[in-house]
Amino acid sequence: MTHFYPAFLDLRGRRAVVVGGGAIAEQKVVALLDAGARVSVISPSVSRRLDDLEAAGTVTIERRPYRPGDLAGAFLAIAATDDRGANRAVWAEAETRGVLLNAVDDLPHCSFIAPAIHRQGDVAVAVSTAGKSPALAVRLRERIGRLIGPEYATLLDLLGELRAELAQRVPDARVRTRLWYRIVDSDAIESVRRGDIAGARARIGRLVEAEEPETRGAGIVYIVGAGPGDPGLITRRGLERLRAAEVVVYDRLVHPDLLDEAPPWAERIFVGKRSGGEGHPIAQEKINALLIEWARRGGIVVRLKGGDPFVFGRGAEECEALRAAGVPYEVVPGVTSAIAAPGAAGIPVTHRRHASAFVVVAGHECGEASDLDWDALARLPALVFLMGLRALPQITARLITHGMSPDTPAAVIASATLPDQRTVTGTLATLAERAYAAGLEPPATLVVGDVVASAPVAERDRPAAAACLSPGAM
After folding, report:
1. Burial (CB count <10 Å: 0-12, 13-18, 19+), residue 126
2. Residue pair 79/86 in contact by the 8 Å Cβ criterion
3. Average pLDDT over residues 52-81
4. Rounded CA gap, 317 and 289, in Å?
5. Banded model confidence at residue 279, pLDDT cuts 50, 70, 90
6. Phi, psi at residue 468, to the nearest 5°?
7. Taking 70 as the threshold, does the pLDDT of residue 40 lie above it?
8. How far apart are CA 105 and CA 117, in angstroms?
9. Cis upstream peptide for 443 (omega within 30°)
10. Any idea what DSSP says for residue 349?
11. What is the pLDDT of residue 143?
12. Cβ-based burial of 346 (10 A; exposed 0-12, middle 13-18, buried ≥19)
């Protein structure tokens, strides 16, 4: 596999040679002129537009075939002919002279690939497929173009005006780099999109003032729910907080792709138990102390938790500790697995015919020393147990012992919302054995009640990629 190194070249005033005069050569010439190059065309015949460009004095044209020596003084060359023999000759001279060469649709004779480019002012996004499929590159460029409109060119101009001023007002390079990310991740772009340039300037100004040495205050902790597994299921607000983080304190249920959303300089601190139960999680008191310490240093701390922070996530305990220490904090709710896991398997937690209420239970509280009211649980129409896979035999046995029918439908969903999601269904009497035979591993969610039977088998057994719950459902 060949990996091309992407680069944007400064061609202002540099000589570029295009061998060929047809429609493709014309496109290359126009792009080179846009980049400020001095363009020479070599071809026995040329398109009408190239004729016009020559008449305007914009390009020079030699109306003849290519011959050795034509690349003298060139910085870059493009062979836009259908003649592979000519391409080989141009390639040989380019290699001898150290001239960068792109031979159109002739990858063996290329020292660089010409990408598909989307431009908005000084914003340029280039897409390359390593020469394998220019058509795919064009289509990807078109998709990117729908995301990056003219408002980004306007925002870039505003940011360009700020560079020198920001270097003076925020002299610490690391703080300044963080500030740039906070600005570009802020809602200033929304003001620009509405045509409110003054509002965008004011928003950026407030962010700058907050980072100046004499005004930078104490830190803050954001307790953010990361969702049930799929990184696309974090909320928009949660993602914004994560992208501004200086410290990320996270547990095992957080998808690795979400950690990549944090800035590259952000400190990443793992505080959970490793997969398979290896090692020991950090005590909650130490996590609380960690959050307080980093916030008191003036940092933006994100405590990233799987699911929702207040659904068996001990987020309330962290809030209590932060409040007692006088540390500002904000809770950003997340999509809890109690709803998302059944939903991803096509199982509703409420249903007009089967369940007008459901209860969420911590599965790890269901061991031998459980003090839950099992009589009450056995009478409820729908139950959801989180983190209950290891206690599954005890859970099903206790529900049966306390009066729930052994024939009650039940399901276990493992790795919910992820590509390797698996769902095992059965009854209270059979589910534990089936789950064991299937080799399910945590994290897993148990659902008990007639709501399980209400989901079509195709819905229950399909993979997460086709699940009912999607990021667009939030």
Report:
1. middle
2. yes
3. 95
4. 12
5. low
6. -65, -35
7. yes
8. 17
9. yes
10. S
11. 93
12. buried
Distance CA 380, CA 450 (A): 11
> Under 8 Å CB-to-CB from 117, ≥6 apart: which residues?
31, 124, 125, 126, 127, 141
CATH 3.40.50.2300 for domain 15-114: no
pLDDT score for 107: 87
Task: Report the distance separating Cα 7 and Cα 4, nearest Å.
Answer: 9
Ordered alpha helix ranges (H), 252-366: 256-259, 284-296, 315-325, 337-344
Residue 361 near residue 383, CB atoms below 8 Å: yes
pLDDT at site 468: 37
**Residues identified as active-site:** 251, 273
- β-bridge mates for residue 427, sequence order: 409
Residue pLDDT, tens place only, 189-205: 889 999 999 999 998 88
pLDDT at 243 over 50: yes
Q: Where are the alpha helices (DSSP H) in 217-330?
A: 236-243, 256-259, 284-296, 315-325
Cβ neighbours for 132, distance < 8 A, ≥ 6 positions apart: none
Per-residue model confidence (pLDDT) at position 178: 81
Using the predicted structure, report yes or no on whether residue 66 has a pLDDT greater than 80: yes
User: Does the structure show a pLDDT above 80 at 307?
Assistant: yes
Of 36-40, 71-75, 130-134, 429-433, the one with minimum mean pLDDT is 130-134
Q: Which CATH number fits domain 220-332: 1.10.443.10, 3.40.1010.10, 3.40.50.10800, 3.40.50.2300?
A: 3.40.1010.10
- Provide the residue ranges of all domains of the chain, joining segments of one domain with +: 15-114, 151-211, 220-332, 339-473
pTM above 0.85, yes or no: no
CA distances to 116, 340, 406 from 337, rounded to whole Å, are 41, 5, 25
Q: Which CATH number fits domain 339-473: 3.30.950.10, 2.30.40.10, 3.30.230.10, 3.30.540.10?
A: 3.30.950.10
For 285-307, what is the mean pLDDT?
A: 92
Measure Cα distances from 422 to 231, 320, 364, 435 in Å.
18, 37, 21, 10
Asked whether residue 457 carries a pLDDT value surpassing 80, the answer given is no
Distances in Å between the alpha carbon of 137 and those of 5, 129, 162, 303, 438?
16, 6, 34, 38, 42
Alpha helices by DSSP H, listed for 185-314, are: 188-193, 197-211, 236-243, 256-259, 284-296
Q: Would you give the DSSP letter of residue 419? A: T
3-state helix, strand, coil in the chain (%, to 5): 40, 20, 40
